[in-house]
């Protein structure tokens, strides 16, 4: 029972108790007053009737008529005349008194009065003694009616007090609801702050809790910034700010092996005369030039979605796209940017060569890099145009390249329900299955091949159909939940996350699920932090429906992880590029250990993606990862025997 309801009941009970006491005293006073009046009536009526009888002739008929008339005219219980010998001469008794007052009430407020007694004279002799008793039923009825009205008004006042006190208490205790909400949020490790109320006691409590939230928030923010600095030191080049060779190589290698990857692009830019520039202009000027080249590459890469860049070695830069792009056009644009930068150099211009190639799922990055490096070494000092190294066939040149055909194929797949969800297990250290990751698969061409998301996601985005596909994936997930007891997790695109239609669909479908916590939603790091306000609203909606929500592919926005302190996320999945060969990278272990501690402080479960072998798993367990997914989980771990 809520505090407000208890206080309201207490107020009403107190009012009822006070009213009951007042009522009892009032009824008791009325009872005493009526008893006194009835006693006077008995005495007065007895004396009056005795005088009347004393002045008439004493024949039995006349006396009896007068007594009967008096008895019938008044409200009497008994009128009797007793002779001096104590024999009843005349007696009239009301043997069936009528009263509306209940017996228990008459017993509680019993009216005990003495009968009126008077002597009847006949000359100088005593004729008899008159005994007169009034009937108290009328007094009981009047007392009962008065009590009923008093009780009714007391109940009305108590009810009004209950209602008014409820409104009043809600207004007074409104800050308490905010305090309770803040306390519940703190219990869930969501460190929120609220406005201090005017009530002194609440204000002190809220101020203390706000201080706690601010301290934790500051601690988490400082820790995320520290870890971001550590990440920059470990995984990024000090001069250019681009990914260093190890991190760039891991990122590309992980993408090429990812199940959702279909086709991408790799561009290498090599500065040919860097050693000559270093000799003539010195180390400092050379680094400034390298930084300018790195800035130009990074700024140009930001024009494309899902593109990363890194410094491979002294004068070697790499640009990689996870999406199918026209590598000829993109390489030419990078070449144009570098030519403009080169033309602006006053001291000494640099010579560069650009090579590009298509990449497809299953390619080995080390082999691709080795071939491209070999061709770059054999090329002239400065290529006139960017060189394409290999993989001439691509999705972009196939018949699926045309948006019209893709749209038709999407519509056919939707119409014929050629859609399904794959299942990849996420295992906890406690030998339990956390959930299945369920990426979307489409069956477009004839045959048994199902396309992974990487093969069609770019086309769906261009056709503005990504929200529709996410909605169909949600339908499939709900249908799977109805057919099994497993927990599932579905991916949510940036477009679907912002879509009111998709959110309404979630609300409608969640009403059909008995255990909404079995369904999780995953939003990518890039989508979440690119539109954080929409992401926060989406998280609040999903959590209010009882579902789980998390962030996937966390790798590059570590400085912003502290912003998650008030959302109440259930899990974050660290990208496989951070996990790759972690057992051989002590600094990376320190980084991941700090990340795990930070997210656990916010009540978030840290999960590792792309685990390949037992050595990586052992290292991840040591740094605090609580669940894992990847090829090793899919192929080697038996559920229940992890």
UniProtKB/TrEMBL annotation:
- Locate the transmembrane regions by residue number: 7-28, 150-169
Q: Name one GO biological process term.
A: signal transduction
Matching InterPro entries, A to Z? Cyclic-di-GMP_PDE-like, EAL_dom, EAL_sf, GGDEF_dom, HAMP_dom, LapD_MoxY_N, LapD_MoxY_peri_C, Nucleotide_cyclase
Query: What are the residue boundaries of the EAL domain, all occurrences included?
Result: 403-642
Q: Which UniProt keywords apply?
A: Membrane, Transmembrane, Transmembrane helix
Presence of keyword 4Fe-4S: no
Q: Name one GO cellular component term.
A: membrane
Q: Name one Pfam family in it.
A: EAL
Concerning SMART domains, the annotation shows: EAL, GGDEF
Task: List the Gene3D superfamilies hit by this protein, alphabetically.
Answer: 3.30.110.200, 3.30.70.270, EAL domain, LapD/MoxY periplasmic domain
PROSITE patterns the record matches = EAL (PS50883), HAMP (PS50885), PROKAR_LIPOPROTEIN (PS51257)
Annotated CDD domains: EAL
Domain HAMP span(s) in chain numbering: 170-221
State what protein this is by name. Answer: Diguanylate cyclase/phosphodiesterase
């Amino acid at each position: 029972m809520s505090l407000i309801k208890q206080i309201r009941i207490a107020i009403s009970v107190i009012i009822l108790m006070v009213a009951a006491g007042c009522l009892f005293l009032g009824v008791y006073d009325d009872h005493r007053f009526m008893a006194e009046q009835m006693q006077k009536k008995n005495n007065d009526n007895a004396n009056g009737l005795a005088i009347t009888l004393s002045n008439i002739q004493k024949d039995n008929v006349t006396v009896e008529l007068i007594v009967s008339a008096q008895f019938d005219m008044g409200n009497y219980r008994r009128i009797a005349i007793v002779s001096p010998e104590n024999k009843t001469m005349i007696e009239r008794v009301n043997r069936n008194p009528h009263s509306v007052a209940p017996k228990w009430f008459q017993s509680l407020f019993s009216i005990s009065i003495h009968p009126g007694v008077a002597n009847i004279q006949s000359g100088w002799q005593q004729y008899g003694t008159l005994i007169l008793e009034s009937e108290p039923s009328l007094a009981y009825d009047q007392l009962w009616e008065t009590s009923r009205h008093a009780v009714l008004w007391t109940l009305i006042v108590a009810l009004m007090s209950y209602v008014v006190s409820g409104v009043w208490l809600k207004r007074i205790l409104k800050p308490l609801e905010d305090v309770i909400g803040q306390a519940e949020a703190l219990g869930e490790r969501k460190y929120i702050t609220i406005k201090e109320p005017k009530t002194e006691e609440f204000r002190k409590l809220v101020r203390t809790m706000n201080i706690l939230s601010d301290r934790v928030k500051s601690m988490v923010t400082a820790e995320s910034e520290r870890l971001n600095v550590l990440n920059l030191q470990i995984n990024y080049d000090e001069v250019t700010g681009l990914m260093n060779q190890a991190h760039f190589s891991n990122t590309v290698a992980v993408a090429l092996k990812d199940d959702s990857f279909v086709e991408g692009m790799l561009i290498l830019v090599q500065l040919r005369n860097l050693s000559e520039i270093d000799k003539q202009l010195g180390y400092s000027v050379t680094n400034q030039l390298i930084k300018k080249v790195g800035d130009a590459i990074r700024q140009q890469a930001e024009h494309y979605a899902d593109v990363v860049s890194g410094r491979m070695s002294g004068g070697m830069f790499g640009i990689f796209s996870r999406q199918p792009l026209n590598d000829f056009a993109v390489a030419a644009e990078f070449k144009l940017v570098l030519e403009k930068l080169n033309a602006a150099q006053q001291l000494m211009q640099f010579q560069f060569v650009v090579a590009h190639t298509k990449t497809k799922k299953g390619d080995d990055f080390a082999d691709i890099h080795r071939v491209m490096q070999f061709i770059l070494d054999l090329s002239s000092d400065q290529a006139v145009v960017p060189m394409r190294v290999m993989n001439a066939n691509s999705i972009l040149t196939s018949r699926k390249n045309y948006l019209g055909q893709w749209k038709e194929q999407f519509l056919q797949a939707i119409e014929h329900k050629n859609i399904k969800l794959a299942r990849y297990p996420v295992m906890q250290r406690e030998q339990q299955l956390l959930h299945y990751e369920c990426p979307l698969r489409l069956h477009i061409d004839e045959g048994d091949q199902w396309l992974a998301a990487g093969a069609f996601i770019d086309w769906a985005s261009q056709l503005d159909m990504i929200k529709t596909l996410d909605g169909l994936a949600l339908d499939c997930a709900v249908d799977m939940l109805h057919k099994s007891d497993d927990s599932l997790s579905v991916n949510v695109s940036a477009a679907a996350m912002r879509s009111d239609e998709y959110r309404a669909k979630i609300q409608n479908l969640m009403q059909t699920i008995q255990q909404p916590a079995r369904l999780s939603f995953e939003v990518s790091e890039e989508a979440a932090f690119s539109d954080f306000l929409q992401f926060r609203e989406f998280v609040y909606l999903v959590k209010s429906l009882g579902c789980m929500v998390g962030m996937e592919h966390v790798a590059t926005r570590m400085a912003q992880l502290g912003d998650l302190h008030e959302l109440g996320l259930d899990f974050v999945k660290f990208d496989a590029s951070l996990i790759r060969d972690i057992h051989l990278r002590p600094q990376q272990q320190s980084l991941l250990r700090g990340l795990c501690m930070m997210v656990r402080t916010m009540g978030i479960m840290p999960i590792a993606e792309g685990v390949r072998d037992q050595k990586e798993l052992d290292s991840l367990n040591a740094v605090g990862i609580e669940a894992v997914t990847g090829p090793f989980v899919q192929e080697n771990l038996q559920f229940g025997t992890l």
